[in-house]
Amino acid sequence: MSSLLALSACFLRTAAAADIVRATLKNGLRVVIVRNTLAPVVTTQVNYLVGAKESPPGFPGMAHAQEHMMFRGSPGLSAAQLSNLIAALGGEFNADTQQTVTQYFFTVPADALDVALHIEAVRMRDVLDTEKLWKQERGAIEQEVAQDLSDPQYIFYTRLLEAMFAGTPYAHDALGTRPSFQRTTGAMLKKFHKTWYGPNNAILIIVGDVDPNRTLAKVRRLFEAIPRRPVPPRPAVQLPPPKPATITLDTDLPYGLDVVAYRLPGYGSPDFAAGQVLADVLDSRRGNLYALVPEGKALFAGFNASALPKAAFGYAMAAFPHGGDGSALVTMMKDIIADYVKNGVPEGLVEAAKHHEVADAEFQKNSVAGMAAAWSQALAVEGRNSPEDDIEAIKKVTPADVNRVAREYLVNDTAVEAVLTARPSGQPVESKGSRGKESFAPQETKRVALPSWAKKAMAPPALPALSVKPTVTVLPNGLRLIVQPETISPTISVFGQVKNNPYLQAPKGQEGVADVLAGLFSYGTATLNRLAFQEALDEIAANESAGTSFSLQVLAERFERGAQLLADHLLHPALPEDAFKIVRKETISTVAGQLQSPAYLSNRALRTALYPKDDPALREATPDTVASLTLEHVQDYYNKVFRPDLTTIVVIGQVTPEQARGIIEKYFGGWKSQGPKPETDLPPVPLSKRSATAVPDASRVQSEVTLAETVGLTRSHPDYYALQVGNHVLTGAFYATRLYRDLRERSGLVYSVEAWLRAGKTRSLYQVSYACDPPNVSKARALVERNLHQMQTTPVTAAELRQAKTLLLRQIPLSRSSTDNLAG
């Protein structure tokens, strides 16, 4: 294992030496440019070293509010111009406010880098932040607050922060509150930008298919003239000693959740790396926390951690059935932690955790945006020199270090305990579906002229070159193999799918058999039990999952062993009798909770309204159908569903098509199908009829709305592409598209609104989703329906048509920006 650690670190250093350029401009802006040729795309991330911690007293969320206002325009670049540019660049953008940093992301075709950099330079120099614009945006950000306050897990997170870090700036997250936003003014936001958004308080990360030196020259030309600004002292963080606390909450989840939380060392501590390894050890599938699941004591269990500069917090977490005893599970988790503190953690798990951290650093290269995020995390959030600093620190961690940190920090007497109890909210009821006629958005929108530097972006892009040229073969047993060589990292990723449909393939009265089978895959293979199989994966630092969807991430030199383990898992799952009894019991509990959860009831009501009463998609598992299952039922279902002639495997990475075929055929070639191919495509359905249903959810302060209908075309219909283009006139590029302009930019009714065409082989669905305050449901719906009617009766403008086509064409190269996206 130590040799693999050294080899992976060597790969990291080699890549860094050849493809990384750094500079600090005269105004203090730090710049890092990393060449990554996975796809003809580039990601820019501007990190401003200001976050929730710097929000003024009494105004939590000001950093978050300024993040929103960065999309409301700057001198020389209005919100409308910015939105049109975002659409022209492909629409992949976002922003994020954390405790200590605010980040702005663009992922664009490589030939559009100039435009993305221009946008960020304009926004760094100044921002409008007028009172009028803030009043418009305030409605949207208040809907984001309502959205998060409708999530019991978010409520728990905020209460956990308060308990862990009371009296410090860390006690509040970045979201903010409605009262604080009502008191905030445009002038306050303008001052906040002027204070904190200077180039000397920012780090620019650029990752992608670029020439680093030429790119640096562009950065100097666009950013170096922006004046530096004095940065005020930052709020001090004086952490009090940890104190015990208890949190109790009701939740709309289909299960209860128990948490035991501890303070851990933060980024600035020399023990941070040991704390990371400790968290990984506690979360191991070979660890005692996860063992609660196969022992039948928890539905799932693990350990998570989140870090800040002065401190981190980690929490053991386990789920219990609806109506179960949460307090008993809390005691079990505390006993497990106490045993690790007393007797030490297994040395093998420490080495496995280190091994995985090093391999994961290589896997990060398989995503352009992911690699940019890793550099931003290292430099802007953690204050490192590069992501490799964390890897070097982790390599030096010893079992003694991990045990010392465990003894110091995992103190049950000062732990914060939480129990989230699942509570039903009632059954769906028929709604009159008010069609409020109020509408305050203009009937037509005006196109805007762009700055001279941006006009090139609006030109229709050329058809993207086919840089991806996979080799496709079909093995003698019918298995379809697709291989795409990539050399960006010394890794190989495998993605697979067995075409299946439980609605059609589960025998009558055995609904839920697919869920039980899925749960049994975690128990190893016929030759390697659960722990031995996980240990074999740890030995090669592989990430693997098996089921009707399966995957493998592994270092290239260990590809054959990884493929062997994946094949053994998929073709020869253990399916032990004792495990079957546990999984069946857990599935009964899970299904019972799901049948009472608002999320399930909402989805069920939607499907019932969309499809005929005897449609296979309306079949559902119940506690009784799951209780009736036998191990023989599960084995029979596995034998009928898992077959090579319905399986596709995609291999992407540092491998030739010949090598990949040789290894896949070696371990999957003996797999044989039994009987004729089953039917896996649902039958066509008639057009749905108008209806409305309301589902109570006591946990939500905001209404979540879904408008859906079946549509009379399928994926092969000639009108499919016309409908997709039309849908991208409505949504897909923020304020440059109609629904976002009407429902968010102008009215502030929603935080987000999305529309999808889910076109299948035999049936299709069109859906619009949004969330808003309950009194505004009908107002927002009226705007959606008016937009849909306008699309049906009035031709779109030439500019909108060109924009939608450009957006879709630009998204083609962007879809290749990670191996996950490449696999589809």
TrEMBL record:
Residues 30-177 form the Peptidase M16 N-terminal domain. The keyword Lipoprotein does not apply. Residues 187-355, 628-808 form the Peptidase M16 C-terminal domain. Residues 1-17 form the signal peptide. Pfam families: Peptidase_M16, Peptidase_M16_C. GO terms for molecular function: metal ion binding. The keyword Signal applies. SUPFAM superfamilies: LuxS/MPP-like metallohydrolase. Keywords: Signal. Belongs to the peptidase M16 family. This is Insulinase family protein. It comes from Tectimicrobiota bacterium.
